[in-house]
Amino acid sequence: MMKSISLLRFFLGVSGVFIIGLFLSFNLKNKEDLHDTFIKNELLKTYKVFSEMDAIAEMYQEGEVTYEDLKRSVSKSRLQYKRIEFYLAYHYPEYVKKHINGAPLMRLEFENTASILEPEGLQVLDELVYSEEILDNSHTIYGLTKRLKSKYLTLYNRLYDDPIQNESIIDVMRLQLVRIYTLGLTGFDTPGSLNAMEEAKVSLESMKSFFKSMYISKQSEVSYKTCIKLFSTSITFLNDNTNFESFDRLQFLKQYLDPLYKELKYYQAKHSDKNLEHISGWNRESASIFDANFLNPYSYTELTQSEDSKALKNLGEKLFYDTRISSENNMSCASCHQPEKGFADGLPKSMSNIQGETVLRNSPTLLNAVYADRYFYDLRAFSLEQQAEHVIFNPSEFNTAYSSILEKLKTKDHGYQKEFETIFGKKGIMRQNLSKALASYVLSLSSFNSEFDRYVRGEIEDISEEVKQGFNLFMGKANCATCHFAPTFSGLVPPFYNENESEILGVLKEENEPVKGVDTDRGRIVNGIYKEEGWIYEKSFKTTTVRNTLYTAPFFHNGAYSSLEEVVEFYNLGGGAGLGLEVVNQTLPSAPLLLTEQEKENLVLFMKALSDNPALKQ
Known about the structure:
Layout: H1 2-29, H2 37-61, H3 67-91, H4 93-100, E1 107-110, E2 114-117, H5 122-129, H6 138-158, H7 169-184, H8 196-214, H9 222-240, H10 249-264, H11 274-279, H12 310-320, H13 333-336, H14 384-393, H15 402-410, H16 417-424, H17 431-443, H18 451-456, H19 465-475, E3 502-503, E4 541-542, H20 564-572, H21 575-578, H22 597-609
Antiparallel strand pairs: 1-2, 3-4
């Protein structure tokens, strides 16, 4: 009898969804702003499927359906969401990240007081329903499905006042291709099921249908036919290659997804969406995900492109190497960022201006350093300009102040006065102009022309099979790309590339010495930013790039790891927790990767193939 009542409740619930759908559809038809039938239908289908999942989760909690029923329902919901993700995640990125499909990590929010919030949404559900603790989490799963349905309905209602804009639709789809490749096919988006190929296929099928509905009048054009063919062949490749570990991500990128990314640009509106420019560093003029100009460096600095120039960059370079801007005239920026060492310094921890002492942490490379929204290992600075300020005021580094530096620069023997006035006019030497000059030089330290980049772009014919396999491992089985996102291979999160991740890895005090324990550096929790003083940031550090690791050893914030081989082995064993140490809230999975010796070697060869130090080409 109980089961019959539950089934009745389920069918009534689904019927209710259809009634709500009809009601919403009727209202939408009377909204001239929401003109696109395709979008409206997919939005309604998504609400229907979320509601079905909620009903099944309740029945699972009461023991009336099986685990397989629940798993199928969650999978169906994820697949349906993927049909509309390109639209929702573009127009409502923060809301979607928090409530619909964000990473399964706790987050810190600050309103009146700081609160640590549990994750919610489809990624969390994917991880839970495929975990060994599924039976113990039935109540949690039901709470998550109910909240997801509620949050989605709120989002749906907001669409009345924020309709889709035709002029941005190609940007929307091109960014979805980036999302599919960097978050979908890497397994970031499906931490439990690894159902990456199926979800990518569904997303491409949906965009293909939408593209056809948008450009039906252009069906005779060559470019239209090319786009449709690329959509179709991409879908076929995904359909024929479903194994997560063996999937050839490099072939898929070069033959299918990157050509589609390039071809869609033909239909792109002349002017970009101004909202996109405010929230993203993505450069819509790029023709490849691995273009040297895939990201716009001026999106990450206070310096604007109109202010920048070769003369300003040259001035910044001169200042970068001038030891006289430190208090004791014994340190320059290049003291810790040496060109021949990939703009790092080769030391575990950089030398202090105090004889015999070091600073707190390792010196990271400045190559591609501009591509970040937060700086330093503890993310305490919010711009390149702020980063310079921390070095200038730090007693262990320059130990000075802007006023002292400016006075030095104004003396005749330094010869800066004329250069500043040539660039800035009568304002000449002042704090803001000094910052702009340094930012211009650091911004110029771009490194996206490695052997691997040039191969992906078709500029060189081939690379070694070991490097190709290393890339596929990096993007798949080895889980590297779920934290080191392509194409920066850092913690700058795609597809908007506007937020830096930090991770808790359980890095040891000394490599291969777990008996000596985890490094005691507290990391982000003590970065001086009041809003980030939450325990979830204890020993959390910025995810830095793996580009140019050929030049930048030793590795990690404490420089404890002398080689890439040791770094790969540390990850292979599951970080500090995988080594049996107590690491609170380790964000790196502690399960071993079980990589073979050849696989580890290929990973290292791939990362070395990402090296491209422009200073060595001069």
